[in-house]
Amino acid sequence: MTATYTFDVFSTLDGYGSTTGDWGGYWGKQGPEFLEHRLGLYSERQRMVFGATTFRANMEMLSADVVATEALDPWVTRMKHLPATVVSTKLREPLDWPDATLVSGDAVDVVARLKKESDVPLRSHGSLAMNRALMAAGLVDRLQVTVFPVITGKTGAGSLFRGAADFDLELLESRTFDGRVQELVYRPTVHESS
Predict the structure, then answer these.
(1) What distance in Å separates the CA atoms of residue 157 and residue 20, rounded to the nearest whole number?
(2) Phi and psi (nearest 5°) for 19?
(3) Three-state SS for 33?
(4) What is the pairing mode between strands 84-87 and 47-51?
(5) Run of H or E including 106
(6) What is the pLDDT of residues 88-116, one digit of tens each?
(7) What is the dihedral of CA 22, 30, 164, 55, to 10 degrees?
(8) Could you tell me which residues come within 8 angstroms of residue 130 by beta carbon, excluding any fewer than 6 positions away?
């Protein structure tokens, strides 16, 4: 039996994962239903999988100095305390993360092995380039896209799928939180040209 791998990502309606503007976290559109749902997702037994860029960003965001001065959402704090595999050829140990394992190598090979060996589901939040490669290799079982009701045509950064392969998506679940934030869960398959 292989572990399920979920690529979990936040998006604007126009497909960006972040912004260069002054929107703030979640583009200012989070609400109590959404935050409770996220805490529930991250309270389940699972292993996080990060690429180097996203892991460095998370380490900065969750550093002791930041945590001491800012109130972080409980699901984000919970994420830091889940076991994690960090795929990188550049990072070096020790990692400033409670239960992180650094693995050097190609992400496709690393995740293929993790899927065979893990006794818990795998989840990656962010890590766009790595997850695009994993989707192309057929290793992503669930693509969980949370769409926030904003368009960031001028300030959008981190295009989620620019440069990705073509995929057919089978909708598995859809939910709306706080009357405005949508979560769409798909099963992706590489689109075969005819």
Answers:
(1) 6
(2) -145, 155
(3) helix
(4) parallel
(5) none
(6) 988 888 888 889 999 999 999 999 999 99
(7) 80
(8) 50, 51, 54, 87, 107, 124
Helix (H, G, I), strand (E, B) or coil at 191: coil
Unique residue bearing structure tokens 């589901």: 121
Q: What is the CA radius of gyration of the chain?
A: 16
| pTM for the whole structure | 0.93
DSSP states of 36-80:
HHHHHHHHSS-EEEEEHHHHHHHHHHT-HHHHHHS---HHHHHHH
Strand partners, 109: none
Residues 54-78 pLDDT 10s:
898 887 777 655 554 456 789 988 9
Q: Is the Cα dihedral 184, 10, 64, 84 positive or negative?
A: positive
Q: At what angle do helices 128-136 and 107-117 cross, to 10 degrees?
A: 70
Reported residue count of the chain is 194
Tell me how far apart the 2 most distant CA atoms of the chain are, in Å.
56
Which 3 state secondary structure label does DSSP give 82? coil
H or E element, residue 101: strand 100-103
Two structure tokens written together for 112: 């293929």
Say how many C-beta atoms besides its own lie within 10 A of residue 158's C-beta.
17
